[in-house]
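FIELD: query
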Amino acid sequence: MQISLPFFIFNRILSGFGLISAVLILSAVHAHAARIKDVSDIKGVRENQLVGYGLVVGLDGTGDSKKAQFTILSMASMLEKMGVTIDPKYIKNVDNVAAVMITTDLPAFARAGSRIDVLVSSMGDAENLQGGTLLITPLRAADGNIYAVAQGPISTGGFSAGGAGAKVQKNFPTVGRVVGGALIEREVPSNLNQKETITLTLHSPDFTTASRVAEAINAALNSHFARAPDPGTIHVKVPEKYRGNIVPLVTLIEGLGVIPDVVAKVVINERTGTVVMGSGVRISTIAIAHGNLSIQVKESANVSQPLPFSEGETVVVPDTNISVEEGNSRLILVESGVSIGEVVKALNALGVSPRDLISIFQSIKAAGALQAKLEII
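FIELD: result
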């Protein structure tokens, strides 16, 4: 018995399959895409560096020595501010105190009263900051204003112990962290909600990536609000409905997916023998042969001992054995336009090491067959 489906039901099934296929294709594309949030920053939304100079007290004899005169002067100045006037020349022992520099980053939109971590680093010849307490220290930005104040116990995450003949150390005990040790006192002014245009800056400027970001934003906003004036910048005009409430717009833009385009590049680190190749690396048709030359030198000493009472002398005669071995390498043909996977297979067939790869890629580049940028770091 043959059963026939009505045309509209059949059409619905085909439409359903088409919709599923479209969803799968979009999902596959989105799976390889990166969020705009991860490839760009919003201009004006950034951290600000803070720095300060202070003293760490409470050290168990591991602080600065008398050679660190700035520590002695800092102690005298601190005591004078607290109502105790003392001549620095009378301060004889400062090994429980260390002069330090405090650094941290003030987050964007940080509010007064919030706390951030600070990094404490020794300036003098202190051996260990473990167990010390950082005294109240103002932290200034590049404009000279105080934006935070730091104080608290230091955590070094390491230790140092030893005697006259041996020493054991883990990590760097002269650098520590005060968790939540800085209290924000001043806010960085921001007028983000009053802006009529926001600017995105790409981490890696590229014409294609900038164009894709602008297209993705325009598609999401269903209008031409974004444009890319250069390969590293995308200007987005704030739509009327987001004026004065720009957070939802930024949230929408940051969540969009784009596929960044990168320059085909081979990066070589000669110090470590590391070779990294990008997915876009291509090689023109070329034949490669790479042979290894191994030279081994073994040297031993033959001692000639005279007989007793012969008044002879002991003679040492060196015996040197040199062996040379040259590898028999095959000639490998690499076709034009092959993918990075085929390039790796061809090079692995030669049995080359990372060190050999450096010489091979330099030779391929010199022959004009490497369709990528060769960068040596």
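FIELD: remark
Residues 191-258 form one domain.
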